Amino acid sequence: MKKLLLLFMSCATFYGVSAQIATPQPSPFSKLEQKVGVTDVTIEYSRPGVKDRTIFGDLVPYGKIWRTGANARTKITFSTDAVIDGQTLKAGSYSIFTIPNADAWDVIFYNDGETSGTPKDLDGKYVAAKTSVEAHEIPFNVESFTIDINNLSSTGARLEFIWEKTWVGLGFTVPTDAEVTASIDGAMNGPSLEDYYASATYYLENDKDINKAKVWIDKAIEMTKDTPRFWYLRKQALIHAKAGSTKTAIAAAKASLDLAKKADNAAYVKMNTESLKAWGAM
């Protein structure tokens, strides 16, 4: 029977017959997709478990190159350039290797294009960025190796590695302002209503040229004068106030307040009321 089974398996392989039974992997594959500003960040990796083992300093030796996961190399992809510890990673995909130690880890972004295997030694010509970050002990056990992206802002985030009782975090930034400004410049060749509103909002929230924001929001308000929107008027009030045009800011806030009351939108009623009080109009 055993010989017959081996013969069948050999023939199946020869004739290209693939297995039809799906079985769970001990280190399952995971894919994380996160928008940071306007940058798409994707991480593909496998997640081994602790399984009653000592991980760091034993299963994963200190001072040795680790593939930062299991199975194929862990891969991170940026849709735009990114900056890590002053080092620019060009848009594209990189393997993440780490060298764990008790108090700190080296984190290496590697671009030799391989998809599996851990190099015995790192080749400097493939090291796109390398930095050292502090390792922290956490007061609970994390069974499955986890990579996450947290501390999100419009210009950056923090890449985190968590396993067993260890947490390591590495900040990075992305060129959001350059990307958005280029997009705004392009859109203003033939702007839509939404382009005016989005551009004005971005300039307000990121402390850019408030007078440009004022021109754009006024264009948006003009384009919606027949069907006014309380959230557009609210933005106009804030931009005018920041530009020092308190009188027109008050007028916009009052118009937004009236429309928000009709729409039964309590949040905008509250925000406009507070602003009008702050501007001495109530």
CA-CA gap between termini: 92 Å
Give me the side-by-side strand order of the main sheet.
1-2-3-6-7-8-9
Name the helix and strand elements from N-terminus to C-terminus, one letter apiece: HEEEEEEEEEHHHHHH
Mean pLDDT across the residues is: 92
Q: Which class do the helix and strand fractions yield? A: alpha+beta
Helical content class: 25-40%
Strand content: 25-35%
Number of strands: 9
In terms of quaternary structure, what is this?
single chain
Biggest pleated sheet: 7 strands, antiparallel
Number of helices: 7
Question: Can you walk through the features of this model?
Answer:
- With 282 residues, the protein is an alpha+beta fold.
- The longest helix is centred in the C-terminal third of the chain and has 17 residues, at 246-262.
- It has helices at residues 2-14, 176-187, 193-205, 210-223, 230-242, 246-262, 266-278; strands at residues 29-36, 39-46, 75-78, 82-84, 87-89, 92-100, 104-110, 127-150, 156-173.
- The chain has a seven-stranded antiparallel beta sheet with strand order 1-2-3-6-7-8-9, with no helix packed on it. Strands 4-5 form a two-stranded antiparallel sheet.
- The protein is built from seven helices and nine strands.
